Task: structure prediction
Amino acid sequence: MNDKPKLILIAGPYRSGTNGDPEAMAAHLARLEAAAWPVFEAGHLPAIGEWIALPVLHSAGAGPTDPLADEVLYPTADRLLAHCDAVLRLPGASTGADRDVATARRRGLPVYYDVSEIPRRTPETAA
Result:
């Protein structure tokens, strides 16, 4: 059995339901990031699309509510998924996260809906 660490995309609401409110988006990002430790603790590597997309937007002089965001956020997640081994889908309405799940399923990647579903790597194999 191949027990290498998986790169797991954490997908869930970021802009959804925020009406562009920066505090609400920050709260959503904090919720996504709260799942990073359990993924890492299970022996895997967490990834969140916004960790890549937001600096890309910033370097273009834009932010998550600018028109350019749709041209960066969704494509970033799609490109990142080309390198991922699985998706952890957190609860909440999110068009982007639903797209991530659909892409993962098309690519034959596992989709988890709770961190407890993610296979843990044993300490012997996690080194």
Observations:
- The beta strands are 7-11, 45-47, 86-89, 111-112.
